[in-house]
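Example 3.2
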Amino acid sequence: MSNKGKNVYHLSKNNRKLIKRKKGSMVIILFLLLASIFYLGSTFISLQNPWAIGQKNGPVTGQSGTLSQKAMGVTQAWEFQTKFTVRSSPVAADLDGDGKLEVLVGTDDGHFYCLSDAGSEEWDWDITVSGSPAVADLDGDGKLEVLVGTDEGHFYCLSYTGIEEWHFTAGDWIESSPTVVDLDGDGSLEVLIGWEDNRLYCLSSTGSIEWFFETSISHFSSSSVADVDDDGFLEVLVISSRSLYCLNSTGSEEWHFTTSSWMDSSPVVADLNNDGTFEVLFGSSDNKFFCLSHLGLEEWSFQTADIISSSPALADLDGDDSLEVLVSSEDSHLYCLNSTGSEKWRFQTGNSVQSSPAVADLDGDNQLEVLIGSDDSTFYCLSFTGSEEWHFTTDDSVRSSPCVADLDRDGIFEVLFGSDDFNLYCLSLTGVTASGIAPWYCFHGSIFHTGQMDSDGDYLDNLTEDYYSSDPTASDSDQDTIIDGLEVMVGLDPVTADAEGDLDNDGLTNIEELTSYPTSIFDADCDDDGLKDGEEVNSTGTDPLDPDSDDDGLTDGEEVNTLGTDPTDTDSDNDGLTDDEEVNTNGTDPTDNDSDDDGLNDGTEVNTVGTDPLNADSDGDGKTDGEEFQAGSDPLQWDNWEKLFGLYLIPAYVVFFGLVVAIFIFTIKQVKKRQTRRQQQEVRANDLLTEGERLLAEHQPGGALQRFQEALKIIPGHPRAQQLFEEAQAILTAQKEENLRRLHDEGQRFLAAGNLPAAETRLAEIRDLAPSHSLVSSLEQAITSKKGELVQQAEEQQAEATAALRKEREATLRKIIEKYERITVQELAQLLHFRKPLEVKQWILDLPSGLPLKIDKDDVIISQELQTDSSKTEQAISRLLRRFDEFEREGRGKRN
């Protein structure tokens, strides 16, 4: 019990002693008073003690898709509805250290979402994301960062709680997914990201440029990383337009391979033939799938019937120690190839396939399943031989690549994928006791997107295992019962047995927090109630995720550390009043069911009789409330014995004297009551002042100010409280001014560095703190000026780019017309920067007569009639350029 509580109860006991000492003299006075009362009554009270126990409702999950299955059971666990298509491939990782995985996914509705394992939103960012996010501990603090590129041209590094740590801005939008790897072997991770400004950037862990690789044409795939040639140094494999480039760890080109058409596929790497060097695998829009050697030479290719826009997956499907290659095509098929490029099987869907596959042993039978989505609005699960095991039907195309992970730590995988019907789906498996491994569990192999497989299914791809010195063939390298990937996610060491350690010093071991209790390995007090998680689990029996386990209005920490009440019982003393009602409403002792020792418990006095639970004799008639209640008299009124004795037996002056004495005694009692109440208020005020001074000494002026305000409410004008209040207020004002100045200076520095979004963030923070402060207008003016500069620069750059593009187009058309060259539709589309060959074909077909471009089958034919007439040539070129500008304004020929 706190000193405050002890003082209150001590004063109450003193009152009871005073009553007992005066009890003898009061009998005579009461006799005289009773003679002057003209009625006799009694009150009979029936007691009631109502209880209401509430029951919380659990979450409700819906099911909008249609399931079809054969042997393995599958059901929709939940769906998360967005406002537009979901084509970004989701990833899953334990961001908050509770052993359960969060889900990260971008959408085309302008939001990037972080969801719980049950599908509820934990946080989101207002950005449009086409690629798949990557997750890694960049700064080595034991907590993951989230890395994502946006259609707005920004690349963000977010904390695990969704707070920006840094961002990098270059040119155009970003469609590729980031890759995280220690590229130079210095022990610090780098980030690779392709931009539509014709560059692949290598960023440090803090977001600064280490190097960039530039090509002549934009559109970068996601990168793969491996020591391709087994020379001890890593290489980067990346696709831009029609070429695949192999770069060394400093960004210099080692070799490149060019196909006959553009490529949307991202390369993957593996040693297919066990010769110690890696092969590079990728698809192309010329309908071919390629396998290159470590030197960039074609080892084999596989022909499909349509373009290949997805990325392949790798796994040993049949357990013969040789990898299979899984690749989908827009010819509606998923193909399974052996390590030499021969087809083992194919599976046909009802429409084109643009989703990249995932591979996992879903049902724990040591046989891998293959997961793939299709434009026929269906998501398929196939056996390792290519036969359908089940499918799930949505309301639109499924182009998102799936992610397989055990979200809720029950040992059974969940399956995640997005659909063009605006939903992210989570499917759960039934009839399965345990899942197996997942060697290719998400887009590009892992949450690090290195393009390498995860051989042991521990959420770390083989290259990342090398970074952490863990065993790529053993899911639990240190044999401490926590798989390597989960250890990395929560800041543990995958090669040191630390399961029995206690990272947050809360009294629960790491393995207990990750597997037995829903608490976080990062936070010693998950519910911020003043009790450590281990104390709640092992000692008090309270819920470590609920600050008020018994829902009585008092936190568990208050009940255990201050009041001495039972945090699992709303009414610790069983008197009919909740602990909160006793402490904060009635001022009674929550551990004593009869605070004033009058024979009636506190709940009866408050809820039924209406007497004062802190006053043993509520009506001051000399009898305790309990005695009157037992005798059947009214404890709230003086009793009338006039009928029993008769007023005529007592002289009038005796009655008058008795009344005077009674009034005097009553006045004395009221004075004492006020003194007691004043003493209680002073005790409470002094406690608040002491606590406030402690907080002030601990540099917590906000909490101190609150305590001083409470003290002034109890005793208005208290000089010491007023002085301390003014001191705390002055400190807070100074801190606020210092913080405003710091934010203003940071904003100016960001502006000087060209980081306009960060400067605007600081301006918003200053507005929130002090909307009318002079620093607001100062920073606003600087930002407005900077924006004007940036707009002017952008306009100048746009004008230069437009002029250069027009000049390039004019030169191209002049060359074609003057030299009468035959050129394919695809080649002309690339030279004129069309997105698709069909668009340039339509443009030519729409040309008016008299212009010298015609189409014969698949070729563009240039008329000879202008070869000798330069004036006609110039006129034709000018008209063609005008038609091109009109076509582009209509939105039918936008550049990539």
